[in-house]
Amino acid sequence: MKLFLGVCLLINSLAYCRARCPEGWHYFENNCYFFETTLTKTTEIEGKCTALGASLVMVKTEAQFHFLSNLITNHGFLLGTVTVGPKQYLWRDGTPIAVGEWAPTYPKCTESCCIVALRHSGKFYDYTCSDTELQLCSKPSENPIITEVASGASPEPTSGQDVATSSDQCSEGWIRFEDTCYYFNKTWTKMTEIEAKCTSLGASRVQIKSEAQLQFLVRSNMLFANLGTKRVGPTGYQWLDGSPINVGAWYPGKPDCTNSCCDVFLVNEGKLFDVSCGPHSYQLCSKTAGGSNRTGIASNLRPLEQDMRQSLSQLKSQVDGMETKLISRMNDMETGLKTQFRGSLTKVESKLDKVLSRLFTR
Question: Are residues 197 and 316 in the same domain?
Answer without folding.
Answer: no
